[in-house]
Design goal:
The complex is a heterodimer of chains A (517) and B (488).
Chain A lengths: L2 H18 L5 H28 L6 E9 L4 E7 L1 H24 L4 H20 L3 H10 L1 H11 L4 H30 L4 H10 L6 H18 L8 H8 L2 H26 L1 H27 L4 H20 L4 H32 L15 H15 L5 H14 L8 H20 L5 H5 L6 H19 L2 H20 L19 H6 L1
Antiparallel strand pairs in A: 1-2
Chain B lengths: L8 H6 L1 H16 L10 H20 L4 E3 L4 E3 L1 H27 L5 H19 L3 H19 L6 H32 L4 H9 L7 H18 L8 H8 L2 H26 L4 H23 L5 H22 L2 H29 L14 H4 L1 H15 L5 H15 L3 H27 L4 H4 L6 H19 L2 H9 L6
Antiparallel strand pairs in B: 1-2
Classes of the chains: A mainly alpha (517), B mainly alpha (488).
Chain lengths: 517, 488
Amino acid sequence: MTLLDAVIFLPLLAFLIVMALPKENHNAIRMFSLIASLAIFVVSLGLIGSVWSAAPGRFSFENNHPWVQTPAINYHTGLDGISLWLVMLSTLLTPICVLISWRSIDKHVKQFFGFLLLLEFGLIGVFCALDFFLFFVFWELSLVPMYFLIGIWGHDRRIYSALKFFVYTMAGSMLMLVAMIYLYEQAGTFDYTRILAGLQSGSISLSSSEQLWLFLGFFIAFAIKVPLFPLHTWLPDAHVEAPTAGSVMLASVMLKMGTYGLLRFCVPLFPNAARQCADWIVILAIIGIVYGALVAMVQPNMKKLVAYSSVSHLGFVVLGIFSFTQQGFDGAVYQMLAHGISTGALFLIVGFLYERRHSLDIAAYGGVATPAPWLSSAFMITMLASIGLPTLSNFIGEYLVLQGSSINFRWTVFAALGSILAACYMLWLYQRVFFGKASEDLTHHMPDLNLREYAIIVPLIILMVWTGTYTRSFLAPISASNAVLLGPIDARREIHVRATPPRVAPGDLAPELNNAR
Amino acid sequence: MPVNFMPTGADYFRILPEIIMTVAGTLIMLIEGWLGENKRRNLSAFTFVAFAAALVAAVAANSRPGLSFSNMLIVDGFATFFRVLVIAVGILSVLSAVQYLKREHAESSEYYALLLFSVTGQCIMATANELIMIFIGLEISSIATYILAGYLRDDKRNNEAALKYFLLGSFATAFLLYGIAWIYGTTGSTNLAVIRTVLLSGGPERNVVLAGTAAALMFVGFAFKVSAAPFQIWAPDVYQGAPAPVTLFMSAGPKAVAFAVFLRVFMTAFAPITNRWEPFVWSSALLTMIIGNFAALMQTNIKRLLAYSSIAHAGYVMVAVAAHNQIGVAAAMFYLAAYAFMNIGAFAVVTHFSRQGERFVNIEDLAGLGWKQPVTAGLFAIFLLSLIGVPLTGGFFGKFYIFKAALDANLVWLAILGLLNSAVAAYYYLRILVVMYMNEPGEATLSIQPVGAGIGATLWVAAVGTLVLGIFPSVLLNFATNSSALVK
């Protein structure tokens, strides 16, 4: 039993306790969920130190315990620099989601908070699992609470969206399951570290067509989750219809399951197939970046706008991963973290507005800045972070991705369009919602931030600034783990490469970044 | 040729479960006349005890495995597994029927006696080592089940179900019998081991075409019993028409044991001609999954939906048969046990919810059940998630083992198509969850009574079983793996 196991299973325990509480006592349920999720966050802070000081390539808090004998399935978990921040993001956002749902959820309160905690269990598990089977278990398990969160507490078209979300993901997962079992047949184990080592040392050999099919099996499952253009159609529906807490968890953490899977499994396990498909995938990612931004621009619905901006931002992550460079990988992971913070915050503030005015239409607002200046400032900072303004979170990720991928792919230049377009749709959104003259009615319904809302948004704003300025405190473990992942792939580098810029030393800040600032 | 036909003590010990159940069933029919109206409900308790005793006897018999009655029966791990399974199904059927029969004013001894006889027949099928025994067991089981399907004799739907089931079932059984005759004519034996030896030998008796025809004829009989395509047409009508607790019984017990004999016959006697039957089983598996899942998408009646879902699940097990390896056998065993639990649970909810005369059997009627009776709905949700195949439920592990067996046998396309099918299936199970949790309660939900003790017990047993198989699959899987070697 390690600290990590505690972080994984405490949410499950909290879920069971919430389910046992009397359903009439709403406040007790809310209070308990808040305290429990905060406690889990505090416990999870203890994870950071060990990952920081761990030797590169080693997993901290590794626990390997047999679960099923035949076929050999182990409860194998561990944490490294790639998964660390995603776990932290889950534990941080859960108490925030409890807070944002404090007033807005007033029916079936017990089940809502229960599902939120169950979701946290699934999400943390996904990022810590080092056994394919265990990964799949958590992967599927996280679907169920999210399905209920959207379907029960969502808006008008919630049922359609929840079903679409579930069936879409399930179809991808099934392909992954086939690939997973096939890999087991070849390797004789579900253990990620052993399969990786076996493939790299050649003790497990796959023909190139096997590699390609296995790669595609995993890739489609992950690409649906990311979502990569053109598999993204479930996302706007799910986001718009979900309650605020659901949108936040979905955008900030759940989408990262896809990119995490690509980075952790797809690329390192099947590097040749990944390279073979990289051109197509990069093109799809770039289309996604530009398309997402263009579609976001014309949305009349705030949530839908943010949802499409997610498609655009996640395109950067995929681009970074399929650049096969240190900067690209680092940027991808950093962008995952930054997007989790900034888009989560955007959804939260949209949630604030919705609680006040009960509308998601941009047209229903205007001049909010006058009655609610602090709310507007918070949105301003978050929006700028999302656009990718230097000194705020997203800039670092996007910059590293563009830098890393431009080494191998010339077309990357078009991805930069995404950043420019982001400024257009975000600033225009800001202008329409916050500037202008507020109507009488709107002023009446638009109090400024209250204490609960400060508690929600301030930590995220601090993080946006922190991740945007003092990168070192986040990037070091990421780089170290990425360097290990990239090493063997790099060695097999075939063509493409002209001049490799100096590799970022593990634990060191990217030098280009210093120059850039 | 055995000279001495006198059975030994060990022979009797090995068929003790069947003896107990037959005696109990006969006693029930005899003593009913002496019992007053009020005392008849004690019959359920008596049946329960008889089943429990048979269960103990079945487990005990496994301590002395071997052949008995001149090689006609065999007690091995495989047989024990299915005997225990069908007896457990019998117990749960009793528990969930008590309240139902009282509600329909149909408490009589026949129900319990028929249930006991049907399970007896299934136990004989599970232990049969010989085609004639299989046929006898099948007939004992089927005839009792035909009558059970039409148990409420004043109900039109019951009559339709029983008639359809009986006519089509007899027709299918005739195919099976014809197949037995062919193989007897070809090989000169009805004993599975002997048939296998003859087919393996290069002698003149080894006529592959004749044996293949026999296999095809028997396939028809078995495919009907397990409701595999293209012989699945009867299932939706019968499942929908029969009383809910009978459907619960039919979809779990007879189906599981039909797969047991299917596996035993095709994995032993017909193993030498695998290449002849494998393509047929392969296509039948795929067709069954597709028909079951896609037809289920359009159902509004929940019994009918579960009937199609039951067809689809038969398709998954057929994938394991098509894999024709030991892992496949073990996977099928595990899956059938997991399926029995989750399906019994689902039908127990239907039994509870449908009310007198089965008025509320539409999916829409379940609206808002999640908030009106959270525990029942929560358990139902577990069964549905297990039917979808979500991890940590028995249904997921079952599916996982089956498709693993398929990939072991290099049936890559069957595995991919099968798993994509199960993504389609998610849709119609989720629709039930949608109605239960996301719609406002309607008339049916608002007038609901508390869950009775019998159904409550069934639900909890089924839910615990589903979760245990999902979280600690080794408890059952190790036994299944150890007893999956059918060729002795």
